């Protein structure tokens, strides 16, 4: 019998304990008060927002950072080097996924999330303090790389942990909507980063921006991180985890190893399903600003403004997708996203080269809206693929493995493919390939939205 069904001392009944087998029909919809769920949503939103603001600022200021840390290279080589540092920091994320997955499944979701936000904030703050190449030479990019590696390790636990936290607190028939808070908060962090980058680009001279202006957003990391940690430490862990913790014989000693032994099929499906999110997120919402300015010749302010508008619309679309995934199912939404990207991405990139600012904004809104069909569904889909005892590990390992191989490398690959093919459509074709792989993975998955978590 599932341990989640037998937890008389847990204080609340686990969200997994739905004996009826019908979403929304069990006790989970009544066990947590509206006030508690509101605080859970707020904590998840703010914490994830802080982490991804920290992580995104680097991408938006890549062109400036490249001139500060790689001034002796030509413009494209310097940009490639900057994105290579961005990509290398992702390679540590699978390791971070194992670490945070173990902490989250063994010691609790709240402990993992509270610790990860501190590490991220401190490492981001340190970026603002690194002298440029002109001051300390090659030591500058080396220090930048080390700090970025720490950032990558920290970020590996955030997205998965926040998603598991929300899904395990959510009513069974609204797990998709609750989990959509995670990509919405991620986009909100990107939005603030974009607004600050646009503001700095418009009010500071080029010399001021390169000398000290680019450091300002990184300095915000420390106070924002402290706020996020404080909010998270005021919450109890999820009902599902507390119920599992009371049944010590059911809790695996090594959750990640248990996941590999028992849930290999789910892990492969999850890695494939994440691919479109990994490539799409970083191409459309992070790299696009650089693409518009460096490849299409738009000014920094126009590029940031277009991305900012797209991000704002993306946040709204995310919640609609979460609602739709609860109604129509995770699998249908993920398949629709892949098919639309395969059909429309290359034509959309053709329209970006028209030089018309309004067209560019509309195309970015379209691409962002298509991406939300995947991004808004993925957190609940991945969390539902794995049972409580390995949920954090399964989500964290699959999500970070795909992001390490294809997400963090997306800006680098897009820039490299443009240089190799001499085609500005290369990022679009890269997205098409990622969509095809995700489609194949999702086709092999079972529908999870209408099943209680304990049966999955």
From TrEMBL:
Main location as per UniProt: membrane
Spans annotated as Disordered: 1-29
Mode of membrane association: Multi-pass membrane protein
UniProt keyword annotation of rRNA processing present: no
PROSITE patterns: MFS, SUGAR_TRANSPORT_1
Major facilitator superfamily (MFS) profile domain mapped to chain residues: 40-450
Key words of the record: Cell membrane, Membrane, Symport, Transmembrane, Transmembrane helix, Transport
Source superkingdom: Bacteria
Transmembrane feature ranges: 52-71, 77-100, 112-130, 136-156, 177-200, 212-231, 267-292, 304-324, 333-351, 357-374, 395-420, 426-446
UniProt subcellular location: Cell membrane
Family named by the database record: Belongs to the major facilitator superfamily. Metabolite:H+ Symporter (MHS) family (TC 2.A.1.6) family.
Name used for this protein in its record: MHS family proline/betaine transporter-like MFS transporter
């Amino acid at each position: 019998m599932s341990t989640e069904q037998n937890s008389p001392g847990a204080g609340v009944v686990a969200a997994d304990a739905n004996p009826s087998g019908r979403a929304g029909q069990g006790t989970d919809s009544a066990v947590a008060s509206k006030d508690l769920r509101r605080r859970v949503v707020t904590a998840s939103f703010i914490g994830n927002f802080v982490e991804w603001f920290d992580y995104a600022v680097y991408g938006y200021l890549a062109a400036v950072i490249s001139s500060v840390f790689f001034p002796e290279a030509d413009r494209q080589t310097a940009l490639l080097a900057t994105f290579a540092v961005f990509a290398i920091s992702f390679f540590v994320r699978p390791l971070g996924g194992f670490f945070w997955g173990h902490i989250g499944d063994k010691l609790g979701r709240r402990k993992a999330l509270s610790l990860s936000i501190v590490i991220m904030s401190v490492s981001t703050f340190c970026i603002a303090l690194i002298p440029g190449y002109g001051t300390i030479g090659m030591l500058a990019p080396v220090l930048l790389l080390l700090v970025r590696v720490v950032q990558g390790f920290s970020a590996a636990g955030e997205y998965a942990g926040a998603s598991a936290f929300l899904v395990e607190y959510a009513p069974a028939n609204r797990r998709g909507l609750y989990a959509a808070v995670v990509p919405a908060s991620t986009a909100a962090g990107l939005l603030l980063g974009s607004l600050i980058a646009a503001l700095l680009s418009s009010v500071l001279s080029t010399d001021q921006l390169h000398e000290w202006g680019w450091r300002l957003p990184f300095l915000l990391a420390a106070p924002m991180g402290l706020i996020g940690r404080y909010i998270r430490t005021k919450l109890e862990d999820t009902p599902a985890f507390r119920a599992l913790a009371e049944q010590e014989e059911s809790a695996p000693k090594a959750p990640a190893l248990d996941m590999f032994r028992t849930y290999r099929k789910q892990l492969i499906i999850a890695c494939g399903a994440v691919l479109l999110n990994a490539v799409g997120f970083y191409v459309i919402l992070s790299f696009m600003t650089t693409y518009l300015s460096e490849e299409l010749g738009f000014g920094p302010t126009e590029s940031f403004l277009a991305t900012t508008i797209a991000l704002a619309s993306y946040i709204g679309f995310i919640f609609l997708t979460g609602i739709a995934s609860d109604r129509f199912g995770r699998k249908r939404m993920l398949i629709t996203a892949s098919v639309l990207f395969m059909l429309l991405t290359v034509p959309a990139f053709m329209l970006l080269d028209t030089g018309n600012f309004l067209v560019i904004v509309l195309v970015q809104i379209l691409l962002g809206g298509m991406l939300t069909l995947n991004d808004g569904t993925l957190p609940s889909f991945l969390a539902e693929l794995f049972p409580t005892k390995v949920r954090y590990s399964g989500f964290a390992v699959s999500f970070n493995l795909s992001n390490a191989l294809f997400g963090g490398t997306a800006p680098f690959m897009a820039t490299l493919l443009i240089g190799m093919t001499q085609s500005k459509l290369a990022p679009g074709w890269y997205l098409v390939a990622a969509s095809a792989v995700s489609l194949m993975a999702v086709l092999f998955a079972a529908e999870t939205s209408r099943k209680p978590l304990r049966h999955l």
